[in-house]
Design brief:
Blueprint: E1 5-8, E2 14-20, H1 23-38, E3 48-56, H2 59-76, E4 79-91, E5 96-106, E6 120-121, E7 127-131, E8 134-142
Antiparallel strand pairs: 1-2, 2-8, 3-5, 4-5, 6-8, 7-8
Helix pairs in contact: 1-2
């Protein structure tokens, strides 16, 4: 799939659509889209791997938790991420479950170029849809 994500017009926040041939790839590209609002990820090295395991009752909640968790790690652990790898995204009878890694390094104000602050992930107009090409995720983050 050529296009990983695109930004959509929004009056106050940042809205994007992320794409993937698989749902895992669409989740990875949603993370790239959110992080590239905050920081130029091409300036970040993938030196450190941060393991993430999340569950939710529905797929929208899992996306919200995924974006919220990597934003939390960015803010609290001062880690900027350059790559995202969703190793497993599965559903059992009660929950959706995600196992992933975010790869990056400690924030270095002398090298990393920052953009717009993202305050939080939101459920605003969130969409997760299967398309003829794979999957499309639409998400809005509070800036």
């Amino acid at each position: 799939m050529d296009k990983r994500y695109e930004y959509l017009e929004h009056t106050a926040d940042a809205r994007f659509r992320a794409y993937g041939e698989s749902l895992e790839e669409a989740f990875e590209n949603a993370a790239y889209a959110m992080f590239n609002v905050m920081i130029d990820t091409s300036t970040v090295s993938a030196e450190t791997s941060y393991e993430i395991e999340l569950t939710s009752e529905d797929i929208e909640g899992l996306l919200f938790n995924w974006l919220s968790e990597i934003l939390f790690v960015f803010e609290v652990e001062s880690l900027a991420f350059a790559k995202f790898a969703v190793d497993r995204l599965e559903q059992d009878k009660d929950n959706f479950r995600l196992v992933a890694r975010a790869l990056g390094e400690e924030i270095d104000l002398s090298r990393h170029r920052f953009g717009t602050e993202v305050k939080a992930a939101t459920y605003n107009d969130m969409r997760i849809e299967r398309t003829p090409e794979g999957w499309m995720i639409q998400a809005t983050v509070d800036t």
